[in-house]
Write a structure and sequence with these properties.
The protein has 16 helices and 18 strands. By secondary structure, the chain is an alpha+beta fold. Strands 15-12-14-13-17-18-16 form a seven-stranded antiparallel β-sheet, sandwiched between helices. A five-stranded antiparallel β-sheet has the order 5-6-10-8-9. The mean pLDDT is 95. Bound molecules: flavin-adenine dinucleotide. Flavin-adenine dinucleotide is lined by residues 34-35, 69-77, 80-81, 92, 112, 134-136, 140-141, 143-145, 147-148, 150-152, 201-202, 206-207, 328, 417-418, 454.
Length: 478
């Protein structure tokens, strides 16, 4: 791979316009990290407006052989949008138009730089609903959501981003403009190339437009917070919903360490002795929701919930969700370094996972606050390190590895929504067979023979595991 020369900067500026190319130090630093907070410096940030400009940039990158890393909102947790091999960051900030919201056809057409939040607001205004709801909805972009197959609490009932993509326009790494998929809910016409781009982590193409499926906005919803004396009862309650005849929108779990982290951070009156709590939400037609709320009550009673708080109105529902939103900052304060994981396991096996985590905590002494989307088995297991000592890092990394091994043994996998990026690349072979990885590499090679789009991710482990997630203090791009 080559460095970005002055001549290349001129040629890039000729494509996007001088004002949309920068090498200013502050901008380079800001665009050279994501939520992992590790800086790998871009040589320039380029902000195209159209698919044609992106095609021209990628053709130039293939000719001159420099890396291109696509960036959405830059709040990924795995370093996916970070230019680990240098080159340019291709920012999608300017591609931020909501092109269409179509009530009759239940779809929206958007550019990749629209935030999840803006899309949700726009469709809500006309009585429609876009369910995927990552907690980063105000910052993360639809392009990033698609490239990582983002999820959120509501995915239990509605599914992840991939269930909502009807069609995608994208530019291949070699600069071809492709239109894949349709505006119809059904489509059996050729290979589903749009599906190939979902979860592709910015490695198979640059998404330039998305046609997204919408659903009618549910008429009503009911939210409840249930406290359990032990995590086992809470997990049994989650698994037992399968036989309850209803599918809640959300089934979120917080373990005891997480509950105490919240009480230490901003007390909300949660009982510190509780083993776990569940946030359960149902939605639909008003009459259906009343009936489903009664079933939720019954399920909580059956599984020995010691308290059940049911929201009586929207503001009480919001205060229940506020508890969940405090989780990330609250947990961050329980250690010096947070190694954040989002392993996913079949929900029937969550009790075994939690037992394993208790053993691991006893053995290592590390706090492992665990919370997340129990309804779809996607647990945010945080390995908290008390200091930055080399020995502690090694212990943290070994603990992360053991968590992944156990997740796979239980029938799960490494990530439910955050992706692999470079942060989890050292663990890929725990979840995928050599033959599976080889097929993925061949697909990448076919679309990107010169390896210019987002190199250093998923298949490679360019950062040793014990360096991943450790903030490099005072790093900036000069
Ligand atoms: C506080 C916090 C809470 C979070 N909660 C959740 C959650 O509940 N659920 C969840 O799923 N995630 C969550 N995340 C992780 C993250 O925000 C999401 O994964 C989100 O989808 C990332 O979107 P982004 O626009 O920031 O992508 P970026 O970080 O900018 O990029 C992510 C990847 O997508 C690629 N990409 C971006 N745009 C394009 C494009 N147009 N074409 C092709 N590839 C592209 C990048 O190259 C990179 O590989 C959370 C993060 C934080 C910091």
């Amino acid at each position: 791979m080559n460095k970005i020369t002055t001549d290349l900067l001129d040629r890039l500026a000729a494509i996007v316009g001088t004002e949309y190319l920068t090498t200013a130090r502050e901008r380079l630093t800001a665009y050279s990290q994501d939520a992992l907070k590790q800086v790998f410096c871009a040589e320039a940030v380029v902000s195209p407006r159209t698919a044609e400009e992106i095609a021209a940039i990628l053709k130039l990158a293939n000719d001159a052989l420099f890396p291109v890393t696509v960036r959405g909102g830059g709040v990924g947790y795995t370093g996916g949008a970070v230019p680990i091999r240098g080159g340019i960051v291709l920012a999608t900030d300017r591609m931020n138009q909501i092109i269409e919201v179509n009530q009759a056809d239940l779809l929206a057409v958007v550019e990749p730089g629209v935030t999840n939040y803006r899309l949700q607001q726009a469709v809500d205004e006309v009585g429609l609903f876009y369910p995927p709801d990552p907690a980063s909805w105000k910052e993360s972009y639809i392009g990033g959501n698609i490239a990582l197959n983002a999820g959120g609490p509501r995915c239990v009932k509605y599914g992840n981003t991939k269930q909502f993509v009807l069609g995608l326009d994208f530019v291949t790494p070699t600069g071809e403009i492709i239109r894949a998929g349709t505006r119809t809910p059904k489509n059996a016409t050729g290979f589903h190339l749009e599906s190939l781009l979902i979860g592709s982590e910015g490695m198979l193409g640059v998404i330039t437009r998305a046609t997204l499926r919408l659903v009618p906005r549910p008429e009503a919803r009911r939210t409840a917070l249930a406290i359990f004396a032990n995590a086992r009862d809470a997990c049994r309650c989650v698994a037992d919903f399968s036989s309850s005849g209803i599918l809640p929108v959300a089934l979120e779990l917080l373990d005891r360490t997480s509950i105490n982290a919240i009480e230490d951070f901003q007390p909300t009156g949660l009982p510190r002795h509780a083993g776990a709590l569940l946030i359960i939400e149902v939605d639909g037609l008003r009459e259906t929701v009343e009936r489903e709320a009664a079933i939720v009550r019954e399920m909580c009673r059956k599984h020995q919930a010691i308290q059940l708080r049911e929201a009586q109105d929207e503001s009480e529902a919001a205060s229940i969700w506020e508890v969940r939103r405090k989780m990330s900052p609250a947990v961050a304060r329980t250690g010096v370094i947070k190694l954040n994981q989002d392993a996913v396991i079949p929900r029937s096996r969550i009790p075994e996972m939690l037992e394993f985590l208790e053993e691991l905590h006893r053995e290592t002494g590390l706090l492992l606050p665990t919370f997340g989307h129990a309804g779809d088995g996607n647990l945010h297991i945080n390995v908290m390190l008390p200091d930055r000592e080399e020995q502690t890092r090694q212990l943290g990394v070994a603990t992360v590895r053991r968590i992944f091994v156990r997740a796979v043994e239980l029938g799960g996998t490494l990530s439910g929504e955050h992706g692999i990026g470079y942060a989890k690349a050292p663990y890929l072979e725990l979840a995928l067979s050599p033959a599976t990885i080889e097929v993925m590499k061949q697909i990448k090679l076919t679309l990107d023979p010169r390896g210019i789009l987002n190199p250093g991710k998923v298949f490679e482990a360019p950062v040793p595991a014990h360096e991943v997630g450790f903030v490099q203090a005072d790093q900036s791009c000069c």
